[in-house]
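Appendix B. Chain record.
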Amino acid sequence: MAKDIQCKVRNIISEIEEKAADGDYIYRGEREWHEQVSSSLWRELHAHDGDKVNYNLIQESHLRDVRRYGEDHHPDDFELASKLQHVGGNTNLIDFTKCHLVALFFACDGSYDKPGRVILFEQTDDKRSRYKIKVPQCPRHRVTAQKSIFVQHEKGFIEEDDIEEIICIRPSFKQPILTYLREKHCIYTQNIYNDLQGYIKHQEIHHKAYSEYRRGQLIRFYSIVGIASIDGIALTDVAIERHSKAIELNPDFVEAYFDRAHVYLLIEDFDKAIEDFNRAIELNPDHAYTYVQRGRTYRRKGCDDRAIKDFNRAIELDPGDAFVYVQRGEAYFNKGCDDRAIDDFRRAIELGDNSVRGHLEAAQIRRSRCRRG
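Structure tokens predicted for this chain:
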């Protein structure tokens, strides 16, 4: 991420932290500006029932029905409501979080053409009583990850005068903020929605991402076999676009980063290729072949020392791959480290790669000449 973008993102985070510095605050992130800071039950029924409704009583009625479906082991209405809330049911609970960064994630996660907002709500004794602010005592995975705390009021929404601050998030900042939260704080979709319901909720996104990835793979194949363009459009550009779309839909798509890196290699954009290999390694640090490919890219940039570090790591992860020894041997040979190159070429031959015998002979000849000289 560019430094100026990082600076702007940090400024937004600092603004939230400064406004919350002198109080006991909880936070809510909304991807769009709704009419009220409200519960899902209020949003479902308000248009029909108006304001003169006690939504807590409606919730109690819903929970009696829920218990008929095998949830009668939950004696506490609040605990059952919090469970229902996180599997997609409508309740009178309003989700807040004790972490401002989690709220910022929710303010940016979706509706990328509309402004989002982070709501700051100070916990005073009066508000705790009126809004029944409460943390679940038996939290599920997602409640823990989101640091959830719930607010509920019989009106179904928070009075405007009780909200201390609202921070607007411009649409153009949403994606950079999500990237920053992922890279700097490990806050991203799979961590926030870390249960089966979370996967189901985002299943369509995963499918779309995979579809874009497969299109990118196919287009890259056409480029490799020699088809440079169609209708004047470079296929490498199209492949990058498809893989980028897959990554936009699913920022944890390791294979999309890996394949996009190879498209960048086709057009010799080594720096962008290395960026994608870096991201693939962050997401899957134990995949030996990614280190091999990043090492080969460093070699093409003339950075043999950095390449050797990657080959070393690949060998630690998979010591039986002859190809890595060939690659490291060539890097050592290029640096003039003939003894190490010879050791690697011999190891590659032991592992069954006889094509490297010419490399071995060249390293041995040069070593003999250096010793005679």
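Further analysis of this model is presented in Appendix C.
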